[in-house]
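INFO  loader      accepted 1 record
INFO  loader      residues=511
INFO  predictor   begin
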Amino acid sequence: MLKNVIENYLISIKEVQFFAPFKVLLETMGFYDIHLLHGSTEFGRDFIAKKQDDDATTQYSFQVKVGNINLSKFTNEVKQQLLEIITNKCSHPNFDRNLKQEIVFVTTGKIQSPATISFQEFNNYIWENLNSDPIVTWEKDKIFMDFYKIGIEPFYELHNSPEFVSRFFDFFTKIKQQHEFTAFEITSYTDYWLSLDLTVKVNKLQVLFEGYFFSKLFYENKEFYSSVLFLSALTRVFVKNDLFEDYKYFLKESILNIINDFHSEYTSKSETEKESFLIGDSFFSIISYPARCLRTLELFSLHLLLSDKFSKKIIQTFNKLIQEKGANRPISDNYGIAFFMTCLVLIKLDQKELLRKYLINTTVWLCDRYSQNGLSPIGYNPQEEYEQIFSEYLSGLDFFENKFSFIAAIILDLCFFLNDKRLYADIANDFRAVEIIPTYFHVNERVHLFDYENIITQTDNDFSLEIKDDFTNYVKYRNEKFSIELNKSEALLLMFQLKDRYFPNIIFDLI
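INFO  predictor   done
INFO  writer      dumping tokens
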């Protein structure tokens, strides 16, 4: 079954999603000095690497494609890029043209007839006219066996535990059965990555394989949110092992591509279909409407915050979505980060009036809920979230009175950051009236990002009704205690994945 899983992965993966696992596969095969050159200055090469072959060192150039190669694709795309590799030695400072050269064409599919004949003729041409050795091809069967024999099989032998392997297939089966995963279930599954020693190359390959493979399965089910969520879980293991910069490009590009595809699918719908997507088709699906709105906004916000350039089309969609009533009605503190990221985009776009309106509307919703039983805290599942909201209307549902609010803390922080004293005073007064207690979750040291025992929960029972010294000192104290250094991409992806870690001082400084 594991062989079928790997084969399915290779058949349908996208090119940018193949790069990171392929890089680690090369490492496990003894290649070194590996560099990704994919882009406008690659000159046909996706990767360069060196390897000690017998008594000599060989400089390798790899051109990577996914899927089958037919005659048209070979003639119009592959052939020209391979010719560029042969004739253009400019690529990277680490490319050594004085070494023995070898060019490898890699495809996760097969070279189909008559492209096979054309490839053979091309090799004859470069041998006779360009004094170049024939190009070696690695097709699906070889890539499959390399992944299995060099990486995956040794990994399972290294961790020879039926329980360990059963977790993989249990998760795999649940995705195939379209089980509705929460963010916390996905994080729980990926937590074991943190225990692996990534200096062991098969461990690194396995983590990347699982990350991209399960993300792809969610993608195929059109569960774009879970697809991005699973891939973002790689961030934490990369940060822990000081590998984030090495894999940032692969990770960001893959995530941005998934969100782009989701946006394309969403915008291709008619207005009626969009409404159906947000509200749902069944009689009771209206209760999931706010969750769908906020998750969709969170995905587009992540794209806009991670991207070097804003997508005008996504901004247009974002501005329409934020007008949806469900956008300012988070059904629990699980949606605090979705709300926060949405506000960050409004700050970055300098849409202060829209941000002010969004904060006020969300405050009204919170106060209405907390005048009764309040919302569910972080970690509750969807059924518990809905029961907490509807328990005041329907008998027989489980509920409890909750006065603590993560989202309220985020709102006050945003007002403080904007230095809008009047807005802060009005919102603080509303929170006081219904006895909401703002609650903060953070960790004080970088190492605590990788456990759950050292999450600091702080409440501010005596927050002021206006921005003045006591609240200012409290925020400064909280920020001084929080001494972790993260770059913007790390902070955004960790917040998106974990839902319970909040890095306001880092993010505010970076945006």
